[in-house]
Amino acid sequence: MALTGCSRPSTVQEIQNEGVLHVITRVAPSIYFEGREGATGYDYELAKRFADELGVELKVRVAEDNTEILSVLERNYAHIGIAGVSQQPDFKDKYQSISTGIEAQSVVVYHRDMEHPESLEALNGQTLHLVADSDHEHLLGTLAADAGISWEVHAGLDAPGVLARVESGEFPFAVVSSNELELNHVFYPHVKEAFGLGEPRELVWLFPKKQDGTLAQAAGDYLQRLEDEGVLAQLSERFYGHLDRLNYVGARTFMHHVENRLPKYEKLFREYARDFNMDWRLLAAIGYQESHWRPNAVSPTGVRGLMMLTRNTASHVGINNRLDAEESIQGGAKYFQMVHEKIPDRIPEPDRTWFALASYNVGFGHLEDARRLTESAGKNPDRWMDVKEFLPLLAQKEYYTKTRYGFARGQEPVIYVQNIRRYYDVLARVITPATPDKPEEPQIVGLEPETGSDSDKDQKEPAASALRASLPNDLGLIPPTL
Length: 482
Hints:
disordered C terminus; two-stranded antiparallel ribbon; Lysozyme; D-Maltodextrin-Binding Protein, domain 2; globular; single chain; 6-stranded mixed sheet; 10 strands; alpha/beta
């Protein structure tokens, strides 16, 4: 939403009188993006909660880059600036700041065909590429002065733009923030991390120096309360907790299958996801975790088909031929809906979906055992980030002998859920969004929404093309225990 070029109220009381909290930020998976269900992102979720706490409307202006964010703040044209940066020495005279609960480190990355550099000294004579007004330039100014290293700042690029050029070989070496690398790495498998620069630093929100300090104080107090209540940890797990599930081989294999196998079954995933009121990309992600979209898959334990249904489950949902792709997808969608409906309504999304996935894999009874263990330990049985700590205990005698349903390979549903979350995350970013003649299906789950528009297609396709080669899968299959 556009901000007019005028100075903003400078106290909490004035902001509440005006009824609007003005935030300027940039589009990034780590910060803010617009999707089918509206705005989301780690920092956006915090800003929206803070605006609600103040009893005011949140208005967001999207900047081109960090340079614009800092310029707007210096002129006091916004109340808060969210740039995904840490505190820097020259900020003290220009901005107030508070920590957001996320740490990041500047990391050197390189194309995997280059020799792995162990330190800055190994990059003597090389040029490092980075985005403008980031943490990296200040660090390089203090660390690289004696290493014979130069760097080039690219004002028109964001972190994915820099990574794309490392992927293509245009930039042999670059520096990006570790959290943005984590969020984007799967799309650029030829990019490798070399080493970190300095120590991880807390990312901050910035406030104009012209403010009287009451807004920064109120925001700091509120975020501290969210940290004490475990909300910051829960949001961090939601946006970052599944990002380690695809390595180089797994990412290339997945994208190869997205391009070569998924088109055969996409219509079926869409059709039966619509019939059972769920997001088709989630259904497709489940199918990939189960069989890598192979309709004739068979496990040593007897589960089979694209959705790897057991004989009993197939009978329960009315499926006759588990090796028929259409029947298998229909059965998987129906069964997931049944499992999802068993999860208590009081559990909010997306946690309710994570619980449903765990139940789909290990069984509802074992999930309930883990939730009881979680509660007995004084943690929240309705929160996935807590329960996933206790599911693995179901494989230990000292714990499973105290449960109703006994032994379970409890680590498997944790890996299962995290894998599917990552597959879904990738599908949501590379699949062309719906068009008026091909509307999107309703969704049963509160996942991170689909982003982009038709004009984004050309920007997304290079990332997929870069991952085209087929390599053996190294992730393994974890068949459901139903």
